[in-house]
Amino acid sequence: QVQLVESGGGLVQAGGSLRLSCTASGRTFGVYGMGWFRQAPGKEREFVAAISWNGRSTAYTDSMKGRFTISRDNAKNTCYLQMNSLKPEDTAVYYCAADANTFARASSRESDYDYWGQGTQVTVSS
């Protein structure tokens, strides 16, 4: 069983930045693909970004390319989401997820993810 704990959310003004962290329990974090998703009030959960097990491959939703950067530090069992130039429409609960397939790629599909964190709130004021 893998537990994921997100942190780093909060309130920020439009144009500001936040860095979310997702720390995983367990010894096999280094072979998992990791992803970030978000869910705004009244909307379905959507894909934000993903990174392969070794960090060599990443994927982003088009609207976030150039503003968001996903990275990972396998030595710390942690995945990050750096968010810059934040907009009010980025307001949502952000979830990290782990794809437990060994040597997983960067996937945008929710169904590929086996473990989910509890979410962290990001609020961007105008």
Structure in words:
With about 130 residues, the protein is mainly β. It has strands spanning about 5, 10-15, 20-25, 35-40, 45-50, 60, 70-75, 80-85, 90-100, 115, 120-125. Strands 2, 4, 5, 6, 9, 10 and 11 form a 7-stranded mixed sheet that branches. It is globular, with a radius of gyration of 13 Å.
What's a concise summary of this model?
By secondary structure, this protein is mainly β.
The count of strands amounts to 11
Radius of gyration: 13 Å
- What general outline do the C-alpha atoms trace? globular
Average pLDDT confidence is 95
Walk me through the topology.
Blueprint (H helix, E strand, L loop, with lengths): L3 E4 L2 E4 L4 E7 L8 E7 L6 E6 L6 E3 L7 E6 L4 E6 L8 E8 L15 E2 L3 E6 L1
Parallel strand pairs: 2-11
Antiparallel strand pairs: 1-3, 3-8, 4-5, 4-9, 5-6, 7-8, 9-10, 9-11
Could you list some keywords that capture this structure?
126 residues; mainly beta; seven-stranded mixed beta sheet; four-stranded antiparallel beta sheet
